Every structure is written in structure tokens, then in C-alpha cells.
Amino acid sequence: MDSGTLAKEETSVMKTLKRSYIQVLYFGLIFLLGSLSSCLVTKKFQAPEYDEPPLFSLDTLSGSGLRVGNYGWRAFFTDSLLRKFIDSTLQNNYDNQIAYERVLQAQSSFKQGKIGYIPTLSLSGQVEHQDLSSAFQFAPSEQYTLSGALSWEADIWGKITSAKRMLKAQFQQSVTAKKLMQTQLVAKTANAYYALIALKESRILLERTLVLRERGLISTIRLFDAGMSNQLAVEQARAQVESVRVMLEENKRSVTMATNTLIMLTGGSLQTMNLGTVEDQRTPETVDVGVPVEALRNRPDVQVSELAFRAAFENFNIAKASLYPTLTISAMGGFQSSEFDKWFTSSSLFNTLIGGLTQPIFMTRKLRTQKEIADSQRREALLDFQKTLLEASTELSNLMESYGAYQRSLLELRRQEEHLSRAFVIAEQLMEYGNATYLDILTAQEALLNVQLSLIQAESNRLQTLVGIYRAVGGGVE
């Protein structure tokens, strides 16, 4: 090929490229002007208001104690065995693993949405061979093509931007939902542990009481044989022994269920030989959750509900923008020749640039229906957020009231235990001097056992309520 021919080919290529650049700038200008109108179609998201919860009383929620929501679970729970159980739960629990997989799924969708502005590009190569019939003869024909295709949709009405924001909200929602799952698992594990140690303490108390009552039954039978007691006392003593045995069986069943709950949560077998006691659990004397509105804002379930509203809001923007024209720009270029040796020459070079504007007219009401449904879903998501906020404030208010009630009940039960312990000693002394019967001993012993069991249960309830408060203000995430 001589220099003149080469120069002509270079000039032809430059003209083709120049024409393509002008066309791209033209359609780019259309996009720029059209994008200015996107603000007239899609709306900017505004976060819902966190109104002051009507059920809260600041003087009962705020104090000078531990602000529980600011502590990680490793710092909040002091029992080393409980920390091991929680750690095992977060590692092995199936619900937590499922939540993690959902985060990965949402993350992949969000990555796709982030590049929604970028054109799609494809490359294809083709060799076509045909045998054409002509006068009972076959004339072979070949075509060699190497082309690239580019397609791009202009975000005139903000549909692509809204789709990106919706996917981002859904991704953040999945991340927050995993935090919600973690707070729930931490609370469930702690509650199951506190229930188990309370049951173990109750069992020790019942076993000790059973030994005492069996000895008392033997003494009553001996007194009856000596003519110093009656059949009523014997039957009462036997009934007291049987009642403790029944409580021990019920305790055994409850221990098995609590242990199985921990096994299910932690995903493995448990070594519960070194369980702590209820009295060993160090907790703050006063509980401070901070400003009520901020406490609710920190809750993962409230955050999930707000993000769901945001996703529904952006989905409505998408449905609304779908009613307007769509501007697409497509470009194709490459080399095409019927001769292999001239495939990659200037004479085989081709390019095409197409700009299209599509306005939906009759879609069997599909797009308008989608818009109406998306609008209803947006309003539904807002109502769900408001409902979640109210339920969260109700729960936290109830938990704070219950915690205070358990604190006061514990003080009363401890005083009651002191009185009944002294009453039991006095009954034994009176019996020695013949001023009391063995029925008086049994009555005092029964009352003391009941208050001691109530004391253990009340302390367990107080601990579980404190865990509920910790979860209710978003605690348990690290």
C-alpha cells in the first residue's frame, strides 16, 4: 500500500471518529438538559420524625447509673461462662449465619446498582459462510465481522439514581437486621443462662429441704409410736415430703428445657458444671438509658423499619419515573469484510450511533398500577415505622417499670426471709418446751421455703429484665 492510499485511509478514519464525537456530544447535551427535569419527577428522601414517646417519663428513665446502650456485651456481662456461651452463640447459631448470608446477597445487589450509570458493552466476532444457488450452481459467500456494541440509558428522570438509593437502603437494612439478630441472640442466651442458674439454685434448696423433711417425717413417726403425736401430724409430714419431691421433678424438667435452649442457641453441647449463681451476677444499682428518643433511635429494629421506609420511598420514585420517556443511546462499531485479507482495513471499518426516545403509551395499565402499588407500599412502610417506634417505646417503658418493681420486691422478700428464718428457729425452740406442735414447725418451714424460692425467681426475673432493657436500647452489638 502506497503512502497516498494510506493517507486517504487515515483521513477517512479521522472523519468517522470526528463524526462519532459530534454525535456523542449531541446526545450528551440532550441528557444534560433532560436530567435537569429529574427533580420534577423524583423526590428527595426525608427521614421520618422521631417524636417524643408519649409513654416515657424522663425522671424514671434517666439516672446516674450505667448507660447500658453504650456498652458492648463483653463489658456488660461479667460472668465468664456466660460470655463463653454468648460467643459460641454468635459463632455457631444458624439464624446468625443466615443473616450474614443475606447481607452478602444485598451487598452484591448494591454493587450492581452502584454502576447503573455505566453503559453496557459487548464484543462479538462472527464468520459467516453461505452457498448461494445460481443457475444450478452454488456460489460461496463469506462474511467476517468483529464488532463492539455499547448501550446506555440516560438517567433523565432520576430512575437509575433512585434504584441505586433503594439498593443501598436494602443493603443497609440487611446489615442492621444482622445487628438486630445479634442483639436478640445475646439477650436470649443471657436469659436462658440466668433461668438455668436460678433453676440450679432452686434444686439445691429443694434437695436440702427434702433431706430436712424426710428427717422430720422419721421423727414424727417415732413420736407417734411413742404416743407423743397423732396421725394428723404424720400425714402432714408425709404430704410435705411428697410436695418437695413433686417440685424437684418439675425443676428437673425445667432444667432440661433450659439446657436444651442453650444448646440450640450455642449450636453445641454445654459444660454447665461450673455455673455461677444469681448472687454472683454484678449489675448496676441504677440503670440509665439516656434520652428516650436517642435510646429508641439506637434500636436496630427501629433502624430496620426506617430503612425499609426509605427503600419503599425510592421504589415509588422508580415507579413514577417509569411513566416518562426513556432515552437510550446505542453505538456499534467494528470491522466487516467479505475477504479475510481485507478484514482489518479502513474500507471494512463501520460504526453506528442510534439515539432513541421511548414513551410508554398503552401498557395495559401496568406502569400506572405499579406506581399506585408502590405509593401504597410507601405509606404502609411509614405506618410500620411509626408502629415500630410506638411498640419500642411501650416495651422500654414497661421494662423500666418492671425493673423498678423487681428491685423493690427483692428488698421486701429479703426482709420477709429474715423474719421467717427467725420464726422457724422460734418454732423449734417452742416445740422443745412443749409450747408448739410439729405442725407449727412444718408451717414455718413451708413458708420459709416458698419465700426462698420466690427470692431466687425474683432475682432471676430482675436479671432477665435488665437484659431486656439492654436489648431494648440497642445493646449487644460489637
From TrEMBL:
Cellular localisation:
Cell membrane
Identify the main location.
membrane
Which spans are transmembrane here? 20-41
Q: Which Gene3D superfamilies match?
A: Outer membrane efflux proteins (OEP) (2.20.200.10)
Q: What keywords is this UniProt entry annotated with?
A: Lipoprotein, Membrane, Palmitate, Plasmid, Transmembrane, Transmembrane beta strand, Transmembrane helix
Question: Which is one GO molecular function term here?
Answer: efflux transmembrane transporter activity
* Cited InterPro entries: MdtP/NodT-like, OMP_efflux
Q: What kind of membrane protein is this, topologically?
A: Lipid-anchor
Domain of life per record? Bacteria
One GO CC term on file: plasma membrane
Q: Which family does it belong to?
A: Belongs to the outer membrane factor (OMF) (TC 1.B.17) family.
NCBIfam families listed in its UniProt record = outer_NodT (TIGR01845)
Task: Write down what this protein is called.
Answer: Multidrug resistance protein
